Amino acid sequence: MGKRSGWDQRLVIDSGGKGLIGHAGAVLLRRCADRTGLTGGLSRMVPRGKGPGWWDRGTVLVSLAIAIVLGATSMSDIGLLGHQALVFGEPPSEATVRRALAGLDTATLARIGKARAKVRARVWDLLARRPQGFPWLTVAGKLLSGWVVIDLDATLITAHSPKQGAAATFKKGFGFHPLGGWCANTGESLAMLLRPGNAGSNTVADHIRVLADAITQLPVAYRRKILIRVDGAGATHELLEHMQQMNRLWRSVKFTVGWTITEVDETAIAALPANAWTAGLNQDGTAGDAAQVAELTGLNQRLGDWLDGLRLIVRRTRPSARHAKKLTTLERATGWRYAIVATNITRLHGLAGSHQPQWLDALHRSHAGVEDQVRQGKAMGLRNLPSKAWTVNQGWVMACNIAADLAAWTRLLGLHDQPDLAHAEHETLRYRLLHLPAKLATHARQRRLSIPDSWPWATAFTLCWQRLSMLPATI
């Protein structure tokens, strides 16, 4: 009999284990929430129910956010935290969670937003004190020191049953069409607006609202240099004018926005001389051979109706097979597929080469990272909305945003120098760190939570706990 067979001989399975803790990574998330002041801040902002047995609603929200990070997809999954009852005590019930979310009216959500912004300011101050400092972005080999980058994007959430606000989507599905804003520097989910499925992709009022909510989440000291990136849905006169008008003597606001190509644009592209095209840049700053870039600003007659100083950067790539049926007459004739980006960036002060079309193209292309944020958001509670009631679902979206922040803060504050965990996606983080089993023992008036020392990321787990425990406590 080989070494791999007979493993089940004399093996007995029962459920009588004592002191066992499942999903032990929850202690890291709760430690982060408590030490950064998130738990206390939410508790002060969310009204507490009256009478015996009522839960502190801030604690309920934090518990739900932790459950979402661990993989919860519905309110009943709060029972997942029952695996840590020996550490935290019994978790809130599904009914308690539902009541907490149903009670999050507009005024309460606004107060929660203020609490999140206050905690974020504290977290960013702690990030700036790290040896490597605040996580400024690097684009095509250039460090954007001092610039906070906000990415706006919308996504679709399918509704598999009738729900309040669900409607037909532009992709012929049925559900919701939320619009969100993410911080590219930190991976935090700054703001999200739940919208019906038939909400427009380029609705100006929604973009302005989400952008305002996202900027409100930024610490005041980090609002001086803001870079906003939006896909083609944001290419409207009103949004571009709004972003341009946000500039002040004390604040610089730059943007890159996808541009819907018309026949006028194609006429300008066709007029470009052959020597106008240069090789595009890879994200490491080297020239690539997959794409070419050119300045289109002086040739495009459409710009006369838009902002003064607006620039158009055109990029061309060889079309793939999936694009073959959607090519325009010009694209079929030239054998290239074109994309245009509009920007108000003439140059970024102190950043050599930031005026070049190739670098501006690379800057906007790195906006594609927001698609990863959307995908990871769906992996943390946004794949499905759990209730038929709009208010409850709106509260669930807020809890998912808090969960995304909590996961980001845990990585940034506790795992920033762990190469295989610092930038790990949520599913990877769950497998390697959060879903670890542990055993709780009491000795000499101390409770000791032990994880397997043979686990490859055991050292990272204990290091993260130590770092989070060393954060200055908040009042």
- Which structural class best describes the helix and strand composition? alpha+beta
In percent, how much strand structure appears in the residues?
15-25%
Major beta sheet, specifics? Answer: 9 strands, mixed
Helix content: 25-40%
Q: DSSP helix count?
A: 15
**Shape call:** globular
Question: How confident overall, as mean pLDDT?
Answer: 89
Radius of gyration over all CA atoms, rounded: 25 Å
- Stretches where pLDDT is under 50 for at least 5 consecutive residues are none
The total strand number stands at: 17
N-to-C CA distance: 63 Å
Largest sheet strand order: 9-8-4-10-11-15-14-13-12
Walk me through the topology.
Blueprint: E1 20-21, H1 26-36, H2 38-45, H3 57-70, H4 85-88, H5 94-102, H6 106-128, E2 138-139, E3 142-143, E4 148-154, E5 157-158, E6 167-168, E7 174-176, E8 179-183, E9 189-193, H7 204-216, E10 225-230, H8 237-245, E11 252-259, H9 263-270, E12 278-281, E13 287-295, E14 311-317, H10 329-334, E15 337-343, H11 357-365, H12 369-382, H13 390-414, H14 426-434, E16 438-443, E17 446-450, H15 458-469
Parallel strand pairs: 4-10, 10-11
Antiparallel strand pairs: 1-16, 2-3, 4-8, 5-7, 6-7, 8-9, 11-15, 12-13, 13-14, 14-15, 16-17
Molecular structure report:
The protein is globular, with a radius of gyration of 25 Å. It is built from 15 helices and 17 strands. A hairpin with a 2-residue loop joins strand 16 (438-443) and strand 17. The strands form four sheets. The chain has a nine-stranded mixed beta sheet with strand order 9-8-4-10-11-15-14-13-12, sandwiched between helices. Strands 1-16-17 form a three-stranded antiparallel beta sheet. A three-stranded antiparallel beta sheet has the order 5-7-6, with no helix packed on it. The termini are far apart. It has helices at 26-36, 38-45, 57-70, 85-88, 94-102, 106-128, 204-216, 237-245, 263-270, 329-334, 357-365, 369-382, 390-414, 426-434, 458-469, and strands spanning 20-21, 138-139, 142-143, 148-154, 157-158, 167-168, 174-176, 179-183, 189-193, 225-230, 252-259, 278-281, 287-295, 311-317, 337-343, 438-443, 446-450. By secondary structure, it is an alpha+beta fold. Helix 1 crosses helix 3 (57-70), helix 3 crosses helix 5 and helix 12 (369-382) packs across helix 13.
